Amino acid sequence: MNLFQPVNTKALHDSKRSRWPHAVVFVLVALAYGLGGLDGLEHKLMDLRFRVSDSPVSSDSVLVGIDSQSIREFRQWPWRRSLHAQLIRRLTAAGARRIVLDIDLSSSSSHAEDADLAAAIRDAGGRVVLPIFKQRTMSGTKAFTYTEPLAMFRDHAQTASVNIQTESDSLVRRYNRVESWQETFVPALATQLAGLMPVFFEPFYVDYGIRPQSVPYFSYADVYRDQFSADAVKGRTVFIGAVAVELGDMLSVPVHGSLAGPMVQILAYESIKTGRTIERSPASLSLIAALLLALFLGPRISAWSWKWGLLTTLGLGGLSFAGAAGLQVFAPVSADISPLLLVLSLSYIWSLIQKIDIQSLGLFKQHMAAVHTRALMSSVVGESFDGIIITKPDGEILFVNPAACNLLERRTNDIEGQNISRFLQTDDDSAYEAKSRDVSGSEAQVIAKSRLSEVKARSGVRVPVEYSATIVPLVLGQSAFEIRTDNRSAYIYTLRDVRESQKAEMAMQTAADKAIAADHAKTELLANVSHELRTPLNAVIGFSTCMDNEMFGPLGHEKYKEYAHDILYSGQHLLEMVENILTISRVDSNNYTLVEENLDLGALVHDCVNIVKGTADLNQVTLEADLPDDLPKLYADSKTLKQILLNLLGNAVKFTGAEGTVCTSVRFAPSGELVLTVADNGIGIAQDDVQRIIKPFEQVEGAMSRTHGGAGLGLHIVSGLVELHGAQLQIQSKLGIGTKVSVRFPRERVAGYDNVFSIVDQTSRRLD
User: What pTM was computed for the model?
Assistant: First the structure.
């Protein structure tokens, strides 16, 4: 049957016009759709329509983001509430119509700070909207904890729920118009801002066709410094919230991947404001359309040629998507077209199945399988690493493959025709022969499996082998030309040289012994760590309890000073050790996930130097930074790179004496690699100890650990984190002169690495 021509026979045509297979297709699709099995596909189609129909935001929303720039400028987090108060006053003075302060104000700060913020909210005259939210008290329970601002804040402000739920694919797709709150309902933030209480409470799909980039944006720090245009916020709704990744308020969303929580609230508000609260079309309409396609178009597709069927399927599928896209653009409705697409696709597949001549295809497949099997078996036997010998029941060798010839150190002609007992001693040759006479049927019988023996090579060496033996019956044929009167059989021996496997067993035993020793060391480590954690934790709990109960009198008693010092030391020691052990565990178990981006290495270096500067000043150590002026961005994990640099700087400051210098520099190697170096002129390390200090819990000497403290984990962590970036860690040191630790990043991680050789004559910058 020619698949490229229409079906012409009337009988076959009538068969393909039958509607029952297409009715079955519809029933299966309807069941999948009704049970929610097509929701994932429907969401993907909706997302695709968002991508082809994007639109800008309206002129009402403005975002003031708590971004990385602001965090670096104000440093301490959470910020003083007087900062928020000043920001509200700035925006109020600029004429903002409403100010959404998406910050948790449920706990008290200092009296002065709280009073300042409360006054700013009161002076805003009801323009400020504050968040309330609820969360489960414990996973798996139905109890909720309700969180709302302090009374002094909410008395002069509006409140609205900022709770957002994710779908089964962990993406934020729908937005609740209202939220249950204890025994009543409260409006969600977007609903509150729109000023419309919904007539029904069903959630709506957020319009992710709105471009987040079109939302006017200002950094929190810029607004605080009054470095923004008042006209940009006048008469508008200003959202204030966290957009920095490190603050953890990023939500996974369709189309855009991830967005900050305040941006999702803006898109929800814009969806309501512009009448774009998207609802899915009624399921009944989709099912009716799919049923009509299945019953009337499906049989016709079966009767057409595969070309016309394919064109029809693709054409109707494209028209369905285009129509749904147009409906989603001009009306807030997402048409469910997945049932239509599936019915079309499955009807077309059924038509292809009907067009195949099953009998001809089966004969062709059998012939090709036989040809393939013969070629494959010939290749397998000839190329097998195991020796294969085929004999008669009496042991006469009929066939031997090259691997067996190599094992016996003989040519094929020297082996064939000989008895196998000359080369291989089996357990009981007479028993094998008896079994061969009892073989019946067409099934092969394994008579020896993985038995150990020896073969005699030409050189006289006895080679240890593992052999298996199988009896294969040669069943009488059904042809009239068959002249045999009784069944015959053949023996197939498989020989495997076990010399290497015996060596491997010994190696495995050695490795197992080492693994046991390593496991013992691991157990010892965990026991030591548990002890190290328990002691400082008891100190923290005990001393803090004494201070809390004022057991020795009011604050200021000399004992409190001693306990405060002990609490600080123990807490820091415990925190450092816990974090280090967790990091080592994640790196060693390949569970450490990098969040890589093109980052400003110069800014990161300065941030790390500033963090370490306080310790350096106490130790009378000078910090320097030597960076190129036009330093390109580095593709790396910001948090991990900061941990690497802080560990290196901390070690350098710790082991550098008073009046010493620690310099952080960035240079490019001739190969284009970016080299980040931390160098000091401290006590240095002996050459024999350089590699040892990278290992966990290793220090140069007992005196050093007693003098400088630490658990010996820092450089081991640095080494693991450097390897995750595909970089190299290099340590150069001379005892009594100093140490230089370099991290060499491959040039592929440097933005525009083909042009890095143009960076020359860079000037050094020294931090005061």
Answer: 0.47
